[in-house]
Amino acid sequence: MKNKNNFLDRWDKEIKAFFSHKLGIAGLIGVSFLIIVAILAPLIVEPVEGYGAFEDKLLKPSMDHFFGTDDMGLDLFSQVVWGTRASIKVGVIAVSIAMLIGVPIGLMSGYSGGILDTLGTGLTDIFLTIPMLPLMIIVAAVTESNSINTVALIIGIFSWPMIARITKSSTLRVSGMQYIEAANSLGIKKRDIIFKHVLMNASTPIFVNLTIVMATSIITESAISFLGLGDPTTHSWGKILHNSYQSGAFATAWWYSLFPSLAIMFFVISFNFLSMGVRDALNPKISRE
Fold first, then answer.
1. What total number of domains does the chain contain?
2. 58: closest CA among 256, 283, 279?
3. Can you count the helices (H) and strands (E) in the chain?
4. Per DSSP, which regions of 218-284 are E strands?
5. Phi, psi of 24, deg, nearest 5
6. Distance, CA of 189 to chain centre
7. Is residue 124 part of a domain?
Protein backbone atom coordinates (compact mmCIF):
# COMPACT_ATOMS: atom_id res chain seq x y z
CA MET A 1 0.00 0.00 0.00
CA LYS A 2 2.87 2.32 0.84
CA ASN A 3 4.49 1.75 -2.54
CA LYS A 4 1.17 2.39 -4.24
CA ASN A 5 0.73 5.65 -2.35
CA ASN A 6 4.28 6.71 -3.24
CA PHE A 7 3.55 5.98 -6.91
CA LEU A 8 0.32 7.98 -6.82
CA ASP A 9 2.05 10.88 -5.03
CA ARG A 10 4.83 10.89 -7.62
CA TRP A 11 2.31 10.70 -10.48
CA ASP A 12 0.35 13.61 -8.99
CA LYS A 13 3.51 15.72 -8.68
CA GLU A 14 4.54 14.97 -12.25
CA ILE A 15 1.12 15.92 -13.61
CA LYS A 16 1.21 19.19 -11.67
CA ALA A 17 4.74 19.83 -12.90
CA PHE A 18 3.67 19.29 -16.50
CA PHE A 19 0.68 21.62 -16.24
CA SER A 20 2.96 24.31 -14.81
CA HIS A 21 5.19 24.06 -17.90
CA LYS A 22 3.98 26.71 -20.35
CA LEU A 23 5.61 25.26 -23.44
CA GLY A 24 4.39 21.79 -22.53
CA ILE A 25 0.81 23.05 -22.24
CA ALA A 26 1.13 24.84 -25.57
CA GLY A 27 2.39 21.61 -27.14
CA LEU A 28 -0.44 19.58 -25.60
CA ILE A 29 -3.02 22.03 -26.94
CA GLY A 30 -1.42 21.95 -30.38
CA VAL A 31 -1.23 18.15 -30.51
CA SER A 32 -4.81 17.84 -29.25
CA PHE A 33 -5.97 20.26 -31.94
CA LEU A 34 -4.21 18.27 -34.65
CA ILE A 35 -5.72 14.99 -33.44
CA ILE A 36 -9.21 16.51 -33.32
CA VAL A 37 -8.84 17.92 -36.84
CA ALA A 38 -7.61 14.54 -38.11
CA ILE A 39 -10.52 12.67 -36.53
CA LEU A 40 -13.18 15.17 -37.54
CA ALA A 41 -11.81 15.86 -41.04
CA PRO A 42 -14.85 14.29 -42.80
CA LEU A 43 -17.15 16.53 -40.75
CA ILE A 44 -15.12 19.69 -41.33
CA VAL A 45 -14.74 19.53 -45.11
CA GLU A 46 -15.37 17.07 -47.89
CA PRO A 47 -12.30 15.52 -49.56
CA VAL A 48 -11.39 17.17 -52.84
CA GLU A 49 -10.98 14.99 -55.90
CA GLY A 50 -10.47 15.43 -59.62
CA TYR A 51 -10.27 18.92 -61.08
CA GLY A 52 -11.93 22.18 -60.15
CA ALA A 53 -13.44 24.80 -62.39
CA PHE A 54 -11.08 26.67 -64.69
CA GLU A 55 -12.19 30.03 -63.29
CA ASP A 56 -11.29 28.84 -59.75
CA LYS A 57 -7.62 28.29 -60.49
CA LEU A 58 -5.15 30.02 -58.13
CA LEU A 59 -7.73 32.12 -56.34
CA LYS A 60 -6.46 34.08 -53.35
CA PRO A 61 -7.77 33.29 -49.85
CA SER A 62 -11.35 34.48 -49.37
CA MET A 63 -14.50 33.60 -47.47
CA ASP A 64 -15.32 31.03 -50.15
CA HIS A 65 -11.83 29.48 -50.04
CA PHE A 66 -10.11 30.18 -46.72
CA PHE A 67 -6.66 29.13 -47.98
CA GLY A 68 -7.26 29.92 -51.65
CA THR A 69 -7.18 27.36 -54.46
CA ASP A 70 -4.47 25.46 -56.29
CA ASP A 71 -3.54 25.33 -59.96
CA MET A 72 -6.36 22.84 -60.62
CA GLY A 73 -9.01 25.00 -58.96
CA LEU A 74 -9.25 22.78 -55.88
CA ASP A 75 -9.76 24.18 -52.38
CA LEU A 76 -6.51 24.28 -50.39
CA PHE A 77 -8.22 24.43 -47.00
CA SER A 78 -9.75 21.01 -47.63
CA GLN A 79 -6.40 19.61 -48.71
CA VAL A 80 -4.62 20.96 -45.63
CA VAL A 81 -7.31 19.58 -43.30
CA TRP A 82 -7.13 16.11 -44.86
CA GLY A 83 -3.34 16.39 -44.87
CA THR A 84 -3.54 16.52 -41.07
CA ARG A 85 -5.04 13.02 -41.05
CA ALA A 86 -2.30 11.76 -43.36
CA SER A 87 0.42 13.32 -41.17
CA ILE A 88 -0.95 11.83 -37.94
CA LYS A 89 -1.21 8.43 -39.65
CA VAL A 90 2.39 8.58 -40.88
CA GLY A 91 3.63 9.64 -37.45
CA VAL A 92 1.75 6.92 -35.57
CA ILE A 93 2.91 4.15 -37.91
CA ALA A 94 6.52 5.38 -37.94
CA VAL A 95 6.64 5.75 -34.13
CA SER A 96 5.09 2.31 -33.62
CA ILE A 97 7.64 0.63 -35.89
CA ALA A 98 10.57 2.56 -34.40
CA MET A 99 9.43 1.58 -30.90
CA LEU A 100 8.86 -2.10 -31.74
CA ILE A 101 12.36 -2.39 -33.23
CA GLY A 102 14.40 0.08 -31.17
CA VAL A 103 13.13 -0.60 -27.63
CA PRO A 104 13.81 -4.39 -27.58
CA ILE A 105 17.26 -3.92 -29.15
CA GLY A 106 18.14 -1.20 -26.65
CA LEU A 107 16.86 -3.25 -23.71
CA MET A 108 18.80 -6.37 -24.68
CA SER A 109 21.97 -4.40 -25.41
CA GLY A 110 21.85 -2.45 -22.16
CA TYR A 111 20.78 -5.22 -19.80
CA SER A 112 22.23 -8.44 -21.15
CA GLY A 113 25.58 -7.24 -22.45
CA GLY A 114 27.88 -9.73 -24.13
CA ILE A 115 27.18 -10.85 -27.67
CA LEU A 116 23.69 -9.28 -27.64
CA ASP A 117 25.19 -5.91 -26.74
CA THR A 118 27.83 -6.24 -29.45
CA LEU A 119 25.28 -7.15 -32.12
CA GLY A 120 22.73 -4.55 -31.05
CA THR A 121 25.23 -1.73 -30.68
CA GLY A 122 26.95 -2.62 -33.94
CA LEU A 123 23.70 -2.68 -35.87
CA THR A 124 22.60 0.60 -34.32
CA ASP A 125 25.93 2.29 -35.09
CA ILE A 126 25.77 1.11 -38.70
CA PHE A 127 22.31 2.61 -39.18
CA LEU A 128 23.33 5.84 -37.44
CA THR A 129 26.28 6.36 -39.79
CA ILE A 130 24.11 6.03 -42.88
CA PRO A 131 22.58 9.28 -44.23
CA MET A 132 18.99 8.25 -43.69
CA LEU A 133 17.07 10.79 -45.76
CA PRO A 134 18.90 10.05 -49.04
CA LEU A 135 18.61 6.32 -48.36
CA MET A 136 14.89 6.60 -47.63
CA ILE A 137 14.43 8.55 -50.85
CA ILE A 138 16.21 5.77 -52.77
CA VAL A 139 14.09 3.08 -51.10
CA ALA A 140 10.90 5.05 -51.77
CA ALA A 141 11.94 5.50 -55.40
CA VAL A 142 12.59 1.80 -56.05
CA THR A 143 9.63 0.51 -54.03
CA GLU A 144 6.76 -0.59 -56.25
CA SER A 145 4.13 0.72 -53.84
CA ASN A 146 4.43 4.36 -52.76
CA SER A 147 1.27 4.41 -50.64
CA ILE A 148 1.16 6.47 -47.45
CA ASN A 149 1.52 3.24 -45.46
CA THR A 150 4.68 2.29 -47.36
CA VAL A 151 6.18 5.74 -46.78
CA ALA A 152 5.37 5.50 -43.05
CA LEU A 153 6.88 2.00 -42.93
CA ILE A 154 10.11 3.22 -44.51
CA ILE A 155 10.35 6.15 -42.08
CA GLY A 156 9.75 3.86 -39.09
CA ILE A 157 12.36 1.32 -40.18
CA PHE A 158 15.01 4.02 -40.47
CA SER A 159 14.01 5.86 -37.27
CA TRP A 160 14.59 3.08 -34.72
CA PRO A 161 18.37 3.56 -34.12
CA MET A 162 17.85 6.74 -32.07
CA ILE A 163 15.22 4.97 -29.95
CA ALA A 164 17.54 1.98 -29.49
CA ARG A 165 20.44 4.16 -28.35
CA ILE A 166 18.29 6.12 -25.89
CA THR A 167 16.77 2.88 -24.56
CA LYS A 168 20.19 1.33 -24.05
CA SER A 169 21.49 4.42 -22.24
CA SER A 170 18.46 4.47 -19.93
CA THR A 171 18.67 0.71 -19.37
CA LEU A 172 22.32 0.94 -18.33
CA ARG A 173 21.46 3.68 -15.85
CA VAL A 174 18.54 1.79 -14.31
CA SER A 175 20.32 -1.59 -14.30
CA GLY A 176 22.96 -0.27 -11.93
CA MET A 177 20.46 0.69 -9.25
CA GLN A 178 20.19 -1.27 -6.01
CA TYR A 179 16.64 -2.51 -6.46
CA ILE A 180 17.60 -4.16 -9.75
CA GLU A 181 20.54 -5.88 -8.08
CA ALA A 182 18.21 -6.98 -5.28
CA ALA A 183 15.74 -8.40 -7.79
CA ASN A 184 18.55 -10.39 -9.44
CA SER A 185 19.74 -11.74 -6.11
CA LEU A 186 16.19 -12.87 -5.27
CA GLY A 187 16.10 -14.98 -8.42
CA ILE A 188 13.33 -13.05 -10.16
CA LYS A 189 13.00 -14.01 -13.81
CA LYS A 190 15.06 -11.85 -16.13
CA ARG A 191 12.02 -11.21 -18.31
CA ASP A 192 10.08 -9.79 -15.35
CA ILE A 193 13.01 -7.63 -14.29
CA ILE A 194 13.42 -6.20 -17.78
CA PHE A 195 9.78 -5.40 -18.48
CA LYS A 196 8.41 -4.72 -14.99
CA HIS A 197 11.33 -2.83 -13.48
CA VAL A 198 13.92 -1.73 -16.02
CA LEU A 199 11.60 -0.67 -18.84
CA MET A 200 9.10 1.08 -16.55
CA ASN A 201 11.83 3.18 -14.94
CA ALA A 202 13.64 3.86 -18.22
CA SER A 203 10.51 4.90 -20.10
CA THR A 204 10.76 8.69 -19.63
CA PRO A 205 13.56 9.44 -22.16
CA ILE A 206 12.12 6.79 -24.47
CA PHE A 207 8.73 8.51 -24.54
CA VAL A 208 10.32 11.92 -25.04
CA ASN A 209 12.27 10.68 -28.05
CA LEU A 210 9.20 8.99 -29.49
CA THR A 211 7.51 12.40 -29.64
CA ILE A 212 10.61 13.71 -31.42
CA VAL A 213 10.36 10.85 -33.94
CA MET A 214 6.72 11.84 -34.43
CA ALA A 215 7.84 15.37 -35.34
CA THR A 216 10.70 14.31 -37.61
CA SER A 217 8.51 11.76 -39.40
CA ILE A 218 6.30 14.48 -40.88
CA ILE A 219 9.37 16.41 -42.04
CA THR A 220 10.69 13.28 -43.75
CA GLU A 221 7.31 12.43 -45.29
CA SER A 222 6.99 16.00 -46.57
CA ALA A 223 10.46 15.83 -48.11
CA ILE A 224 9.68 12.52 -49.82
CA SER A 225 6.32 13.78 -51.08
CA PHE A 226 7.86 17.08 -52.22
CA LEU A 227 10.23 15.08 -54.41
CA GLY A 228 7.24 13.33 -55.96
CA LEU A 229 7.83 9.97 -54.24
CA GLY A 230 4.84 10.12 -51.90
CA ASP A 231 1.35 8.70 -52.24
CA PRO A 232 -0.33 10.37 -55.27
CA THR A 233 -3.79 9.37 -54.01
CA THR A 234 -3.47 10.96 -50.56
CA HIS A 235 -3.62 14.64 -49.69
CA SER A 236 -0.49 15.40 -47.69
CA TRP A 237 1.23 18.68 -46.95
CA GLY A 238 4.35 17.59 -48.82
CA LYS A 239 2.27 16.67 -51.85
CA ILE A 240 0.67 20.14 -51.86
CA LEU A 241 4.14 21.71 -51.86
CA HIS A 242 5.17 19.36 -54.67
CA ASN A 243 2.16 20.37 -56.77
CA SER A 244 2.90 24.03 -56.06
CA TYR A 245 6.46 23.66 -57.28
CA GLN A 246 5.55 21.54 -60.30
CA SER A 247 2.88 23.99 -61.43
CA GLY A 248 5.29 26.93 -61.33
CA ALA A 249 3.08 28.75 -58.83
CA PHE A 250 5.47 28.18 -55.90
CA ALA A 251 6.64 31.81 -55.92
CA THR A 252 3.77 33.65 -57.58
CA ALA A 253 0.80 32.23 -55.64
CA TRP A 254 2.11 32.74 -52.10
CA TRP A 255 -0.85 31.00 -50.45
CA TYR A 256 -0.22 27.78 -52.37
CA SER A 257 2.96 26.99 -50.43
CA LEU A 258 2.40 29.11 -47.30
CA PHE A 259 -0.43 27.20 -45.62
CA PRO A 260 0.94 23.65 -45.96
CA SER A 261 4.31 24.98 -44.77
CA LEU A 262 2.65 26.56 -41.73
CA ALA A 263 0.86 23.28 -41.05
CA ILE A 264 4.16 21.37 -41.08
CA MET A 265 5.74 23.97 -38.80
CA PHE A 266 2.80 23.85 -36.38
CA PHE A 267 2.93 20.04 -36.28
CA VAL A 268 6.66 19.92 -35.52
CA ILE A 269 6.61 22.72 -32.94
CA SER A 270 3.61 21.22 -31.12
CA PHE A 271 5.24 17.82 -30.68
CA ASN A 272 8.59 19.36 -29.73
CA PHE A 273 6.94 21.54 -27.07
CA LEU A 274 5.05 18.50 -25.77
CA SER A 275 8.28 16.50 -25.49
CA MET A 276 9.93 19.38 -23.62
CA GLY A 277 7.05 19.53 -21.15
CA VAL A 278 7.07 15.79 -20.51
CA ARG A 279 10.85 15.70 -20.16
CA ASP A 280 10.99 18.54 -17.65
CA ALA A 281 8.02 17.24 -15.65
CA LEU A 282 9.45 13.73 -15.31
CA ASN A 283 13.02 14.86 -14.65
CA PRO A 284 13.22 17.18 -11.62
CA LYS A 285 16.90 17.90 -12.34
CA ILE A 286 15.93 19.84 -15.47
CA SER A 287 14.67 23.38 -15.11
CA ARG A 288 11.00 23.79 -15.86
CA GLU A 289 11.26 27.44 -16.67
1. 1
2. 256
3. 13, 0
4. none
5. -60, -40
6. 34
7. yes
